[in-house]
Design goal:
Elements lengths: L1 E4 L3 H9 L14 E5 L2 E8 L4 E7 L7 E3 L4 E8 L2 E5 L3 E4 L4 E4 L5 E5 L5 E8 L7 E4 L14 E3 L17 E3 L2 E8 L15 E10 L5 E3 L4 E3 L9 E10 L1
Parallel strand pairs: 1-9
Antiparallel strand pairs: 2-3, 2-13, 3-4, 4-11, 5-12, 6-9, 6-11, 7-8, 7-10, 14-15, 15-19, 16-17, 16-18, 16-19
Length: 242
């Protein structure tokens, strides 16, 4: 399942009447793990258009009910089961399910698996401070992003794709993941197991044969959709997950 979520009138009203911290994060996040009351997260990839964060959420714990007023996000489950909720609805997510979330949409993710939940969060544009917490089980409502809670680690402990454009395939939670540039369709036509692969746009834009924009960061789609006739790639980079 790949589902797009847009803000409701309730979302818009909450943003209108609730102020939120706007102080940018001053610490470099490239080589740390950010400890959270629900688990931890770390920066896995960054370019000028998109950041990718790897989140590990403990059993029955959840992120706050929050939104990003000025950036779009996408979530892709790698392992475990999740309960994804907005102010109005909830969905149970399984591995390779994805939610593409418009800016200004409140949402929360809970782990339903005893072994925990691992998911990827794609943020466009990279603005970690763009965060409004409406409700939080751990007393963080109306607070900004955590600073001063970073645990320094060695890069070898967690898989990262920093400072690269094309990568070797890496195994994360039994998923084969790589990053690649796609100047045109030829680069992805022969990718193995296309019918079981998700593609996430990290930069650039894909246009129709009429030069109309159809895919941009952080869009999530099945890889075979990118192979339809008439698509033009403009400085596109992708994360492929199978």
């Amino acid at each position: 399942m790949i589902k797009k979520i847009r803000p409701s009138e309730l979302d818009k009203n909450y943003i209108k009447f609730h102020k939120y911290p706007v102080k940018p994060v001053s610490t470099s996040l490239s080589d740390v793990v950010v400890m959270k009351p629900w688990g931890y997260e770390y920066l896995m990839f960054k370019n000028p258009e998109t950041e990718i964060w790897n989140l590990s959420i403990k059993y029955q714990r959840s992120t706050s009910m929050h939104c990003h007023p000025n950036k779009k996000t996408a979530l892709v489950v790698l392992s475990g089961r999740a309960l994804f909720s907005t102010l109005n609805e909830s969905w149970e997510l399984l591995p390779h399910d994805a939610m593409v979330i418009d800016s200004g949409t409140f949402h929360s993710t809970q782990s339903l698996s005893k072994e925990g939940l691992v998911l990827l969060e794609f943020e466009t544009p990279p603005m970690k401070h763009d965060l409004l917490r409406l409700e939080d089980k751990y007393g963080r409502a109306r607070t900004g992003y955590e600073e001063g809670t970073y645990e320094m680690i060695k890069n070898s402990k967690h898989t990262r794709f920093l400072r690269i454009k094309n990568s070797q395939t890496k195994n994360i939670c039994n998923n084969k993941i790589c990053i690649m540039e796609a100047k045109n369709k030829d680069g992805i036509l022969n990718y193995p197991q296309k019918n079981r692969t998700l593609a996430v746009i990290l930069s650039g834009i894909v246009k129709s044969k009429n030069e109309e924009p159809i895919y941009a960061p952080p869009h999530v789609l099945a890889l075979e959709e990118l192979q339809e006739a008439g698509h033009f790639f403009h400085d596109v980079s992708l994360m492929l997950i199978r």
